[in-house]
Amino acid sequence: MNRRHLVAATAAALVAGAMPAAAQTYPARPITMIIPFAAGGPTDVVARIVAEAMSKNLGQAIVIENVAGAGGTTGSTRLTQAAPDGYSIMIGHTGTHAASVALYPNLRYNPVSDFAPIGLVNTNAILITAKKALPANNLTEFVAWLKANERTANNAHAGIGSVSHTTCLLLHAIIGVKPQSVPYRGTGPAMNDLVAGQVDYLCDQVVNVAPQVRAGTIKAFAVAQPQRNAALPDVPTTAEAGLPAYQVVVWNAMLAPKGTPDAIVTRLNQALVAALNDDGVKARLAELGADLPTGNLATPAGLRAFLEAEIAKWTPVIKEAGVTASN
């Protein structure tokens, strides 16, 4: 071995020696990814697509564990109790790691300090949808109908604190109405009743409602983002449809327990970024209408700052609506 190779080998050994032993061999066994919602929902669908690609990069399987309950806070709490060794991670979202602060006065975790952020996974636009029989045919007519029928109109959602709940709370606040709330155990049964005409309207992620819109079983009034969504190019934006103040994008993020070694968080982040850059993953998420993170949102530091900003955004909206997990 010549001197140059000896110096390089010594430097590599020193770097390896400075890393925790577990990080040097990580991952040595399958990783559990907690999804704090039932199987088949939008977060679950996105998580499985990303997990499959990450497992190839990591060389170990990622096993999905659906831990539903309490608006996703049950699964989130489960992660805070897991060993910080990189073998337990989760996909949190707008409800579990932003809206939960105002909705759950006795929340058992801090959405920022009790987790090690890995990176933002994706963002999803919110779509305002309604049953086919609703007399309104566009967003302006829907707003007028909702104001005129505030006492009898009913809004389906996937439970207190869910994305379909909090995003409609924001819509109601902007319009100035407080219609009837009809909670379900998930967006699946809520959508079934919307299609059947048993409830009036639903605010939910494009990822979740696009198939029904394309099938023509429900009405789609507008997508709440600055530009039209590629999955539903014929649906206007809220700005185009006359309600520019309603701009809301929800998200999924990957997190580990607090105290997870930086080297392991970095490795998981690298695998996440590689998955999101995979052409197959991009195509599948684009078909669902999901958008990929930009800038530093795919980094641990960027995600931490983003979580803090989202908590600050949603807390006043929920408090103004006077909603908690107990009502």
Automatic annotation (TrEMBL):
Keywords: Receptor, Signal. The keyword RNA-binding does not apply. InterPro entries: BUG, Bug_dom1. Residues 1-23 form the signal peptide. PANTHER family: BLR1237 PROTEIN (PTHR42928:SF5), TRICARBOXYLATE-BINDING PROTEIN (PTHR42928). Belongs to the UPF0065 (bug) family. This is Tripartite-type tricarboxylate transporter receptor subunit TctC.
